[in-house]
Amino acid sequence: MPHLTIDYSAHLAAAFDRAALVRELHPLVLKESGSTGVCKTLVRPAETYVGAGADAGDGFVHVEVGLKPGRSEALRAHLAESILALVDKHLRADGVIRSAEVRELAGSYRLSPAAPRVDRRPSAPAQAPSARSRRPSNAPAVSGHSPQGRLCREPSPSCG
After folding, report:
1. How does DSSP assign 90-109, residue by residue?
2. Is 16:90 a contact under the CB 8 Å cutoff?
3. Beta partners for 100?
4. CB-based contact 132:95 (threshold 8 Å)
5. For residue 18, what are the contacts with CB-CB under 8 A and spacing of at least 6?
6. Distance of alpha carbon 90 from alpha carbon 61, whole angstroms
7. CA-CA distance, 22 to 61, in Å (whole number)?
8. How many Cα atoms occupy the beta-carbon half-sphere of 2 within 13 Å?
9. What is the signed CA dihedral for 2, 75, 96, 43, rounded to 10 degrees?
10. Coil, strand or helix: which one is 63?
């Protein structure tokens, strides 16, 4: 459930192992926050940085974690410290401004399930469908739907 955003100065790309950070960050956030589910992470390089150290080209890394309400300020502060230690482990550069914020998601937060995936692979040359493979004319042609228009959770022979 946690939402993570990692912003960093783009020029740090070669000195910042983002993939390794995320691999370790996900279990850390889940364990220390008591969250369940899957972390959703966005990693964004920033081309422009204005602030302390910007003139020297030092750059920054900022990690933001959004959690559902209910965690104490002490827990969120401890998690932020743990995140900074993990950033240090995966950042091979001096003079970089590092920060972390663990915040509560707003009461307006909503989560929508993912839309069904559409098969975008090139199709085989057109052939006349056999009587067995025809779908009813009112059935959707989108992969992931059954001929009755219900969403399928798993691929199955009944999906259109």
Report:
1. HB--SS-EEEEEEEEPPTT-
2. yes
3. 63
4. no
5. 6, 8, 43, 90
6. 11
7. 13
8. 30
9. 0
10. strand
What's the rounded mean pLDDT across residues 75-100? 96
Q: Are strands 60-67 and 97-104 parallel, antiparallel or unpaired?
A: parallel
Supply 104's token pair.
Answer: 């509560």
The per-residue pLDDT for 50 is: 73
Q: Specify which residues 16 forms β-bridges with.
A: 91
| Residue 18: Cβ within 10 Å count | 18
Tokens found for residue 22: 């995320």
pTM: 0.68
Instruction: Decide: residue 113, CB within 10 A, 0-12 exposed, 13-18 middle, 19+ buried.
Output: exposed
Report the relative pairing of strands 40-46 and 3-9 from DSSP bridges: parallel
Q: How confident is the model at residue 129 (pLDDT cuts 50, 70, 90)?
A: low
Q: What was the pLDDT predicted at 112?
A: 82
User: Residue 54: what are its φ and ψ, rounded to 5°?
Assistant: -65, -40
Residue type, 148: Q
